[in-house]
Design brief:
single chain; mainly alpha; two-stranded antiparallel ribbon; DNA-binding
DNA sequence: ATAATCCTAAACAATC
DNA sequence: AGATTGTTTAGGATTA
């Protein structure tokens, strides 16, 4: 057994034996790994900028000139990021942290974690953040590519300009124009896209920056240098992870902190002083340390900074947000003044603007790419037909984040591409907790497991994702799905494996858990059968444990319920049903007291296919079944659902007295209480 | 801080 | 004898 669990258990594989503990451990570990990965990743991309140009001196010259602008731009980006995250002080903590976790995970995810694991580990917002992080990473690569291309272009231009005097200026001009046009087009695109993003809260780019494509020549800023923008400060001492964060922060950080931006610069004391003139790295680091895994709850992301009339997009937290400028301005007036004097329309400002545009552009491209990738991933996971809409999609990404509330989001798969990855059933609750499926969303007030499963049936069937339901709810579901509402242990096993890819793996563990649950919960009643025993569900018991606060001793609760008059019982029942797994029951008409008894069991059927008239299996109808109250007519029928692979056909010998079987226990007693049978 | 709930692990007994 | 099925206990984790 030891061997089995060791080898089979999913959890144990990655992180060791302790299920829950593993989670945290896993997360930690991942972060560690991430750090490493990050470090390397960052390092490699970063350095590219300077090296590869030397061919043309003109190019170098240009490069050099542009260097400055880029530097500035880079600083600005960093600053922007920090500024964004800083504003809310308290909020910033959250936002920062929100990014952090995903970052680490994101970095390692491709290699270390399966998508499912990631899904399980990460909360929706985290997932989003992760996505964004990945995008940022990809961006680096993309930038390199892009850089090279542009470099070539520039070189060409330069070559033509200098060496190629012969070439008519017009030709050159045309080329440049064409290039410019291209840039402009892209810029426009990007602007649109950014606007979209902004609306979604994905990016809180300041309108000013996003807008106003400059007419100036692109050459002022060489794309070659772009990578440096992402270099992430390159501060030696700085942990790699931080640099990554910085890279990614444009998206995530922005999104997360966008809300706080508008807020007046009430700097949080403890949190770093973003005001600090140049210590971007530290600022960022400190800010992002904490980890609330969800974005600021209150304000809609879209309400990014700058909503306030009295504020200026380039002014925040008492300082000028212009790239590379961190001048402190006491008030808006002063800032405006500063803006007009220091950042007037000149070459430098123009160049900086251009750089920013480039950055945005890169992001846009990256976003498109990632969107495509996401589509492909989803398609691969059988999620749903991919609909490649690079530019409209980004929205969806952020959509995930737009549910800070933690409520279960409408599955409406179609809506967001992201959703598929996180089956609706996985309320944020289930996810953010970190524990895979640990938090049974189904149990509480979330969507009923049955509908949940119905909707995501394919998903769970194919994706190795742990379902967000408790064992108890799953077992119950399995049993209720059968016409007879009874299953043997083995059949239950089969149902698990059939329905969930996840349960095809760590068999020893979950089977033990299933048995444990069957034994432990009163709601599962074992009924002796000729050839063995089958398990049935006592809905009443199942619902009983539902009431969140019905604490007290179980027995107490039990008594309370049993003590209820039928009407009362029914009422409570209805209430319970309403919020639990019987979607159909909720429909009016279903609940008339008279039929209540039958309804419990039936409810499910109603939902599904026509209830198999359980034939009278005459043989089997045990006495106890009759009590409608208890509803689940536990007719021990020999033939379990045929579906089961193993199910053994057996002679219909009703299990005579259910209660007789096995340990009578209170549960049996209770269910069979003659008194309760209302019919 | 605490109780409730859930999960996992494991020991053990009864049965197949 | 070995595997399966059930029961029970214990401890860790998460949540309210």
């Amino acid at each position: 057994m030891m061997v089995e669990s060791a080898s089979e258990t999913i959890r144990s594989a990655p992180s060791g034996q302790n299920g829950v503990g593993s989670l945290s451990g896993q997360a930690d570990g991942s972060s560690g790994g991430a750090t490493g990965t990050t470090a390397s990743g960052t390092g490699r991309e970063v350095t590219t900028g300077a090296d590869s140009n030397g061919e043309m001196s003109p190019a170098e010259l240009l490069h050099f000139q542009q260097q400055q602008a880029l530097q500035v731009a880079r600083q600005f980006l960093l600053q922007q990021a920090s500024g964004l995250s800083s504003p809310g002080n308290n909020d910033s903590k959250q936002s920062a942290s929100a990014v952090q976790v995903p970052v680490s995970v994101a970095m390692m995810s491709p290699q270390m974690l399966t998508p499912q694991q990631m899904q399980q580990i990460l909360s929706p917002p985290q997932l989003q953040a992760l996505l964004q992080q990945q995008q940022a990473l990809m961006l680096q690569q993309l930038q390199e590519y892009y850089k090279k291309q542009q470099e070539q272009l520039h070189l060409q231009l330069l070559t033509q300009q200098q060496a190629g005097k012969p070439q008519p200026k017009e030709a050159l001009g045309n080329k440049q124009l064409a290039f410019q046009q291209q840039l402009l087009q892209m810029q426009q695109l990007q602007q649109q896209h950014l606007l979209n993003l902004q609306r979604q809260g994905l990016v809180s780019l300041q309108p000013n920056q996003a807008s106003g494509p400059l007419q100036t020549l692109p050459q002022a800023v060489c794309p070659t240098d772009l990578p440096q923008l992402w270099k992430g400060e390159g501060a030696p001492g700085q942990p790699a992870e931080d640099s990554v964060k910085q890279e990614g922060l444009d998206l995530t950080g922005t999104a997360a902190t966008a809300t706080s931006f508008a807020a007046p610069p009430k700097v949080s004391p403890p949190l770093s002083h973003h005001t600090l003139p140049n210590g971007q790295p530290t600022v960022l680091t400190s800010r992002r340390d904490r980890v609330p895994d969800r974005p600021p709850p209150c304000c809609p992301p879209s309400s990014s900074h700058e909503e306030t009339p009295g504020s200026h997009p380039l002014y925040g937290h008492g300082e000028c947000k212009w790239p590379g400028c961190e001048t402190l301005c006491e008030d808006l007036g002063q800032f405006i003044k500063h803006l007009n004097t220091e950042h007037a329309l000149d070459d430098r400002s123009t160049a900086q603007c251009r750089v920013q545009m480039q950055v945005v552009q890169q992001l846009e491209i990256q976003l498109a790419k990632e969107s495509e990738r996401l589509q492909a991933m989803m398609a691969h996971l059988h999620m749903r037909p991919s609909e490649p809409k690079p530019f409209s999609q980004p929205v969806t990404v952020s959509a995930a984040d737009s549910f800070p509330d933690g409520l279960v989001h409408p599955p409406t798969s179609a809506a967001a591409p992201v959703t598929p990855l996180r089956p609706p059933g996985l309320g944020s609750a289930s996810l953010h907790g970190g524990g895979p499926a640990r938090r049974r969303s189904s149990d509480k007030f979330c969507s009923p497991i049955s509908s949940e499963l119905a909707q995501n049936h394919e998903f769970y069937k194919n994706a190795d994702v742990r379902p967000p339901f408790t064992y108890a709810s799953l077992i119950r579901q399995a049993i209720l799905e059968t016409p007879d509402r009874q299953l043997t242990l083995n059949e239950i096993y089969n149902w698990f494996t059939r329905m969930f890819a996840y349960f095809r793996r760590n068999t020893a563990t979950w089977k033990n858990a299933v048995r444990h649950n069957l034994s432990l919960h009163k709601c599962f009643v074992r009924v002796e059968n000729v050839k063995g025993a089958v398990w049935t569900v006592d809905e009443r018991e199942y619902q009983k444990r539902r009431p969140p606060k019905m604490t007290g001793s179980p027995t107490l609760v039990k008594n309370m319920i049993s003590g209820l008059s039928y009407g009362a019982l029914n009422a409570s029942y209805q209430a319970a049903l309403a919020e639990s797994s019987f979607p159909l029951l909720n429909s009016p008409g279903m609940l008339n007291p008279g039929s209540a008894s039958s309804l419990l069991p039936l409810s499910h059927d109603d939902v599904g296919a026509p209830v198999e008239p359980l034939p009278s299996n005459g043989s089997s109808s045990p006495p106890r079944l009759s009590p409608p109250q208890y509803s689940h007519q536990v007719q021990v029928k020999e033939e379990p659902a045929e579906a089961e692979e193993d199910r053994q056909p057996g002679p219909p010998l009703g299990a005579p007295n259910p209660s007789a079987s096995g340990p009578p226990e209170d549960r049996d007693l209770e269910e069979e209480l003659p008194g309760e049978e209302l019919s």
